[in-house]
Each structure stands twice: as structure tokens, then as C-alpha cells.
Amino acid sequence: MKVAIAHPDRATVSRLQTLLAEQPGIRVAWTADTAQRLLATCAVRTPDLLLMGLDFPGLAAGELTRRLMTASPCSILLLNQGCDP
């Protein structure tokens, strides 16, 4: 399974990458730390699952999700701001 991680906090991304690397059959395909990078990357490399933070500066999670589902539909798991994997 190709998983992408999109979160503005690099420490959270790093922790998630470490956790996912231990799981058989899961590969982190890419990461994004801005909404713009997320939209651009997802358009050309749509993952099987997107782990996405709720707190991207400048773009509400609802609007970001709407844009993703319009341009690059995929399964999305939203991560709470206080997420500590």
C-alpha cells in the first residue's frame, strides 16, 4: 500500500514515517509540508491512503479535502492537531 503523509509539522511526519516503515506491505510514497505541495504531488502521484493534518496555514481542511477529492480522489485519514503517534 502506498501511503502519503501531509502535515506541516516535520517532527510529526518523521514519527509517522518511522511507524509506517515498521509495517509490512506499507510504503511511504511521499510527504508534503504545505497545502500547495500536497495538491501538486497528489495530482501526479495519487496514494492509496493519505494521512493529512488538519492545520495547514492558509487553507482550511475542508477546502483542501474538497480540492483533493475533485482533482485526485483517494482515501484520506485526517490527523488531529494534537496527534502524537
Please describe what this structure looks like:
The protein has a 4-stranded parallel sheet. It is globular and about 30 Å long. α3 (61-71) links the parallel β3 (49-53) and β4. It has 85 residues and is α/β, with parallel strands linked by helices. It has 3 helices and 4 strands, in the order βαβαβαβ. The protein has helices at residues 10-21, 35-44, 61-71, and strands at residues 2-6, 27-32, 49-53, 75-79. α2 runs parallel beside α3.
Topology:
Layout: E1 2-6, H1 10-21, E2 27-32, H2 35-44, E3 49-53, H3 61-71, E4 75-79
Parallel strand pairs: 1-2, 1-3, 3-4
Helix pairs in contact: 2-3
**Any idea what the shape is?**
globular
Global structural class: alpha/beta
Biggest sheet, in brief? 4 strands, parallel
β-strand amount? 15-25%
The number of helical segments is: 3
Low-confidence stretches: none
Helix content: 25-40%
Could you give the distance between the termini?
19 Å
What average pLDDT do the residues reach?
92
Element-by-element helix/strand order? EHEHEHE
* Radius of gyration over all CA atoms, rounded: 12 Å
How many strands? 4
* Spatial strand arrangement across the major sheet: 2-1-3-4
Short précis:
The protein has 85 residues and is α/β, with parallel strands linked by helices. The protein is built from 3 helices and 4 strands.
